[in-house]
């Protein structure tokens, strides 16, 4: 089982679109996929589940927030991911919740007190909650995808500690690319601190940077517009790996995914533009499979 965090500090860069359509295309190719929505905005959840269904069926006791709350409240036994996962179109999903943002405050309370040894133990325990839970289902999936929030919260760090890889979708503009090196540095620092506290080699983590996926590309004459090509070149000069596959902007096609609870690659359209969009997502999936090795 390979675990991948999909993350960018900047919101609105197509992160959820990449996660949902990667998951859908991987399932279409016969892979066993679990997606975990860690973003309180719940956009990934609503890419698969209609809002009314989530509200009536899953909001109270079938979300990642409910799982964290059970740990914080000392519930015994804590529900397993298997208890919470739902299935849509062959994809297993662990839904998010608008209240997930409050979980960080509760988890942080246990990190700041006690002796140095207690601090070390609390640090490892707090940041490895998801990692340990995934070990219970590692034989059930080929890949787990985290849709991370646009921050470096305790919940986000939980995803990265559990991950073998992380991927950064980014719109090719100043604000979206600005924080990529900062994000990589923060991941490196988290890894160093976590590994410093580990008592055995088997606990050591090493999430690998897969690269940047250029999203919301404005295509002209079959290639990105000049301004976006400049940002791509700047990233390349900074030795930041960029996926060959790029995803164009198309508000009409992508906007309908949450409304129908169906990712783009599962929808039925007849236009030439739709076929081009789907081909880009298929190419991205092929490249992703090659990099991750599934």
From TrEMBL:
Residues 1-196 form the AAA domain. Pfam families: AAA_31. It comes from the Bacteria. InterPro entries: AAA_dom (IPR025669), DNA_Partitioning_ATPase (IPR050678), P-loop_NTPase (IPR027417). Signal peptide: none annotated. Gene3D superfamilies: P-loop containing nucleotide triphosphate hydrolases. PANTHER family: COBYRINIC ACID AC-DIAMIDE SYNTHASE (PTHR13696:SF99), P-LOOP CONTAINING NUCLEOSIDE TRIPHOSPHATE HYDROLASE (PTHR13696). This is Cobyrinic acid a,c-diamide synthase.
């Amino acid at each position: 089982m390979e675990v991948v965090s999909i993350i960018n500090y900047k919101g609105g860069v197509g992160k959820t679109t990449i996660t949902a359509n990667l998951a859908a295309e991987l399932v279409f190719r016969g892979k066993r996929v679990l997606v975990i929505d860690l973003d309180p905005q719940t956009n990934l959840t609503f890419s698969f589940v209609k809002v009314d269904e989530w509200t009536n069926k899953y909001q109270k006791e079938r979300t990642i927030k409910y799982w964290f709350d059970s740990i914080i409240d000392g519930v015994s036994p804590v529900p397993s991911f298997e208890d919470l996962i739902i299935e849509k179109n062959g994809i297993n999903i662990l839904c998010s919740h608008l209240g997930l943002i409050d979980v960080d405050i509760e988890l942080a309370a246990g990190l700041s007190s006690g002796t140095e040894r207690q601090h070390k133990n609390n640090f490892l325990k707090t940041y490895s909650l998801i990692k340990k839970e995934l070990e219970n289902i590692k034989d059930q999936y080929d890949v787990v995808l985290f849709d991370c929030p646009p921050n470096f919260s305790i919940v986000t760090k939980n995803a990265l500690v559990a991950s073998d890889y992380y991927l950064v979708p980014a719109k090719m503009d100043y604000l979206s690319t600005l924080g990529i090196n900062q994000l990589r540095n923060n991941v490196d620092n988290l890894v160093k601190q976590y590994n410093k506290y580990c008592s055995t080699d088997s606990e050591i983590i090493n999430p690998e940077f897969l690269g940047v996926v250029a999203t919301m590309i404005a295509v002209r004459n079959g290639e990105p517009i000049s301004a976006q090509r400049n940002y791509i070149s700047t990233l390349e000069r900074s030795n930041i790996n960029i996926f060959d596959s790029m995803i164009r902007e198309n508000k009409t096609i992508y906007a309908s995914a949450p409304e129908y609870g169906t990712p783009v690659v599962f929808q039925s359209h007849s236009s030439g533009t739709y076929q081009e969009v789907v081909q880009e997502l298929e190419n991205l999936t092929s490249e992703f499979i090659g990099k991750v090795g599934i």
